[in-house]
Amino acid sequence: MTKITTLIVDDEAPARGRLRTLLAAMPDIEIVGEAANGDDAIGAIGQLRPDLLFLDVQMPAPDGLAVLRAVRDEWLPCTIFTTAHAEHAVAAFELHAIDYLLKPYTKQRFADAVARARETIERRRGQNDARVDSLLKDATVPQAPVERFLVKTGERYIVVRAADIAWAESADNYVILHTPTGNHVLRRALTALEGELDHKKFFRTSRSALVNLDAVAEIQPMGAGEHVVILKGGARVPLTRGLREFQERIQTGR
């Protein structure tokens, strides 16, 4: 029997305990880990790459959806959301045929959700869950700026905080994230990354680069109407668009 590796994520210990108890009666389920917050969940998903994820929607930031946005280009498990609030994204879950458990849920409701997850995993084992990916791309689902990204480095995964990104540059279908601790390659188009970052903190300086406004030290003219942004770490990033807007954003922080 091929086990379904399972990760439980919930900020409430009793909720994690109930899931453990219910899953213990299912011989094909193997619980490989638990996480009590979004940060730990992001790291665990990258390290464990579970087949099945039980994910609390509402947790202290990063919440459930933010967790999935952080890992979506590396690994999106088959996900069963848990929530205590009927109005919280339930319509979106139903639209994308994603299972959710409304707390408190019955054993039968739980069993039905796991049965559907088994079918999905059997069809897509080793692949991202397309339903979850579709949910994350749904413009009607509220999206807070992504605060953390899961990045593969060699054989391991690390979490890069958005606040630690000094600037990012495009490299074909990837972006290079420049941070104080080194550079990291993220499987993301620069335009997609720009849409996920906080627009109050990041600015697109050119077709191929964006910078963290908090990392800017100065702007220097280069002649012929061109300018370069000097970052606090010494990096020089060309500014080929929106000089007036860039200056205003630096001055006002908006």
What is the structure about, briefly put?
This protein has about 250 residues and is α/β, with parallel strands linked by helices. Helix content is about 30%, strand content about 30%. Helix 2 packs parallel to helix 3.
Describe the structure.
With 254 residues, the chain is of the alpha/beta class. It has 2 domains: 4-136, Response regulator (Rossmann fold); 158-252, LytTr DNA-binding domain (OB fold (Dihydrolipoamide Acetyltransferase, E2P)). Helix content is 31%, strand content 32%. The chain contains 8 helices and 15 strands. The chain has helices spanning 13-24, 38-48, 64-71, 90-95, 107-124, 130-136, 190-196, 243-252, and strands at residues 4-9, 29-35, 52-56, 78-83, 100-102, 148-153, 156-161, 167-171, 174-179, 182-186, 202-206, 209-212, 216-223, 226-231, 236-239. It has a 5-stranded parallel sheet, sandwiched between helices. The chain has a 5-stranded antiparallel sheet with strand order 10-9-8-12-11, with helices on one face. The radius of gyration is 21 Å and the shape is elongated. The mean pLDDT is 89.
Helical residues, percent: 25-40%
Structural class: alpha/beta
Count of DSSP strands: 15
The CATH superfamily of the largest domain turns out to be Response regulator
Second-tier CATH architecture of the largest domain: 3-Layer(aba) Sandwich
Low-confidence spans: pLDDT under 50, at least 5 residues? none
Mean pLDDT: 89
**Which band does the percent of strand residues land in?**
25-35%
| SSE string | EHEHEHEHEHHEEEEEHEEEEEH
Radius of gyration: 21 Å
Total helical elements: 8
